[in-house]
Design goal:
By secondary structure, the chain is an all-alpha fold. The chain has helices at 4-7, 11-27, 35-42, 46-52, 56-67, 71-81, 86-101, 107-116, 119-135, 139-142, 151-170, 175-191.
Length: 194
């Protein structure tokens, strides 16, 4: 969570910092990004950066939270809206997720997240996201804690969907090619593989 110093900045200054973060993390995966690039872009000292963020990771998570949609929360939202009809939800999710990940402004953020994310980063992201969500009223809308769900099925579907998204970035799928593959995978989930 950004420090209060950042949150208390005038909106135009905060937006300038967001833009520098966007530029850095759209240009580089987290493991190649640097505070040096961000502070040079902003023409501020490293000390100023650390008045706003604890570290590079916090700045990365901050821009992810601002610029991307948590795809798991999105799926839960769609599932709830569809009265837990998995087939219908998976079909809707494909269209929604393709609009998100192929959005030109956010494409690289999603790409680097899916291609370079590791288990440690995932754990720290979950902690960061939970802290943020506790402060937001929308968290309860997408919370799955009180839903009767078979978690093995959820993990299976999650693995399949993550795989097709990752392949889209690895193999440079177009949005249309992604949707064809996505729908094929969903068909296999629902009807089985022949």
């Amino acid at each position: 969570m950004p420090k209060n110093t950042f949150n208390n900045l005038p909106p135009e200054k905060r937006e300038k910092i967001y833009e520098a973060l966007r530029e850095e993390f759209n240009s580089n995966p987290f493991n190649k990004a640097s505070v040096k690039n961000i502070v040079e872009n902003l023409n501020i000292s490293r000390g100023s950066f650390y008045q706003y963020f604890e570290d590079l990771e916090e700045s990365y998570f901050t821009i992810l939270l601002k610029e991307t949609t948590d795809i798991h929360s999105l799926f839960i939202e769609i599932l709830k809206d569809d009265n837990f009809d998995l087939c219908q939800s998976l079909e809707k999710f494909g269209n929604r997720i393709s609009n998100l990940i192929f959005d030109e402004r956010r494409y690289s953020l999603y790409k680097y997240r899916f291609l370079y994310w590791n288990e440690d980063l995932e754990k720290r992201w979950i902690e960061f996201y939970k802290k943020q969500a506790m402060e937001c009223k929308h968290h309860s809308k997408n919370c799955i804690d009180n839903i009767d769900i078979n978690y093995e099925k959820v993990n299976f579907v999650k693995a399949v969907i993550h795989n097709i998204i990752k392949r889209a970035f690895q193999e440079n799928f177009s949005k249309e090619a992604f949707l064809v593959k996505y729908n094929q995978y969903v068909n296999w989930i629902i009807k089985g593989v022949d």
